[in-house]
């Protein structure tokens, strides 16, 4: 067990009370809290550096541009991308996937092509592909999960064929906690000539990612799940793919030359960044990356692995509690249900004890369908959670069950 007291103290919201009690925040898979460093960076930008980027020749705008582009370099470093041209700022993982589906999908997929989508995807990595089905006549092929919530490479091998153009898979499931063997998935897909899109929304703040070592084609994540602000995220894509892909949106910044006769487009990455970007969000994302790098992935993993093991053991002892998602390789997410109570009733009751726990389908309805459930309760850990949070959760669950009985 690691003492993360000092890390927790960096998050001002966690010091406040809810219903007169210290808050236990266990909904980190949904969004994480923000450290002072991130809040300060955004405030500093608005107080001292606010100007539009890429446009002004005056000092203030140059400083804003430098700060903004500096974060692109930080993301490049975080992912070990070969070039900062491969980092596209978007609103979040959802927009990143929609960008790929609209731009790459519409320009390179055709009738009869197949996209393999895992059964554990968040809706944001299924619905954008479904939107292409009617227009392009492509087919979506489900890569099923087993009872423990795991994907098997042997199943993928059976699904891949000459029509497969893409495998869309999450690095870590937000609803089950399963961590997928993305290196092996990418290698196998590439053997069959298929590209791979990895949804790293849940993994990027918990484990190192090296896009070059993985040889991944597309990868997306959101800032707000990694201690950064909402409304900002990134798409990584290989430069050769981005060069071929048409613009996703038109407007300022993404152009080189415009006339009524026609328009030529800006170079990468700006070709995909139409309009004034979320500058403050990017600055905040940069501070979040600095926070993660300062804490370090070894410490983050040690804290979250300890909590996962501790919580799994403790929750398992509660009468009638069933864990959904028991993969051999899991991150800090535990979904569970009770035979005797509905998830929403439990979550509402434990809210009275200042415990923030998600009860939902977690935007992964196909997973709920697989297990025949309307919803699950989900505890998901961040770097500031501790065993005392788990203890309070378990006491509150027991009390809620007693009340419902
Ligand atoms: C695995 C996964 N993918 C994608 C998303 C979508 O992220 P956003 O809503 O930030 O675009 C989420 C959000 O919960 C997620 O957990």
UniProtKB/TrEMBL annotation:
Key words of the record: Pyridoxal phosphate, Transferase
Record SUPFAM superfamilies: PLP-dependent transferases
EC number(s) from the headed UniProt entry: 2.8.1.7
Ranges for domain Aminotransferase class V: 24-393
Gene3D superfamilies in the record: Aspartate Aminotransferase, domain 1 (3.90.1150.10), Type I PLP-dependent aspartate aminotransferase-like (Major domain) (3.40.640.10)
Gene Ontology molecular function: cysteine desulfurase activity; pyridoxal phosphate binding
Protein name (Swiss-Prot/TrEMBL): Cysteine desulfurase
Native organism: Thiomicrospira aerophila AL3
């Amino acid at each position: 067990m690691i003492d993360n007291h000092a890390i927790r103290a960096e998050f001002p919201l966690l010091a406040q009370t809810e219903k007169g009690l210290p808050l236990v925040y266990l909904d980190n898979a949904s969004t994480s809290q923000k450290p002072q460093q991130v809040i300060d960076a955004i405030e500093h930008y608005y107080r001292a550096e606010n100007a539009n980027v890429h446009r002004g020749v005056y000092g203030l705008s140059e400083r804003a541009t430098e700060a903004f582009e500096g974060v692109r370099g930080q993301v490049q470093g975080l992912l070990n991308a070969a070039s900062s041209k491969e980092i596209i700022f978007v609103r979040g993982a959802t927009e990143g996937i929609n960008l790929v589906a609209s731009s790459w999908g519409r320009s390179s997929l055709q009738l009869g092509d197949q996209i393999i989508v895992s059964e554990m995807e968040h809706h944001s990595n299924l619905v954008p592909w479904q939107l292409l089905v009617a227009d392009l006549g492509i087919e979506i092929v489900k890569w099923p999960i087993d009872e423990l919530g795991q994907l098997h490479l042997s199943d993928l091998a059976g699904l891949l064929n000459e029509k497969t153009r893409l495998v869309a898979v999450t690095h870590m499931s937000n609803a089950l906690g399963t961590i997928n063997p993305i290196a092996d998935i990418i290698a196998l897909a590439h053997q069959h000539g298929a590209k791979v899109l990895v949804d790293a929304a849940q993994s990027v703040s918990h484990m190192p990612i090296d896009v070059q070592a993985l040889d991944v084609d597309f990868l997306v994540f959101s800032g707000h799940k990694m201690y950064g602000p909402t409304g900002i995220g990134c798409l990584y894509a290989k430069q050769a793919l981005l060069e071929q892909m048409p613009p996703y949106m038109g407007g300022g910044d993404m152009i080189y030359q415009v006339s009524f006769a026609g328009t030529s487009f800006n170079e990468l990455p700006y070709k995909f960044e139409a309009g004034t970007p979320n500058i403050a969000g990017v600055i905040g994302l940069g501070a979040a990356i600095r926070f993660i790098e300062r804490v370090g992935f070894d410490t983050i993993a040690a804290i979250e692995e300890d909590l996962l093991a501790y919580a799994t053991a403790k929750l398992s002892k509660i009468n009638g509690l069933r864990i959904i998602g028991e993969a051999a390789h899991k991150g800090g997410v535990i979904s569970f249900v009770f035979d005797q109570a509905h998830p929403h009733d439990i979550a509402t009751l434990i809210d009275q004890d200042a415990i923030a726990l998600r009860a939902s389908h977690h935007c992964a309805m196909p997973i709920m369908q697989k297990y025949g459930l309307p919803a699950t309760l989900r505890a998901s850990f961040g770097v500031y959670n501790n065993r005392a949070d788990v203890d309070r959760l378990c006491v509150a669950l027991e009390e809620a069950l007693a009340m419902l009985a």
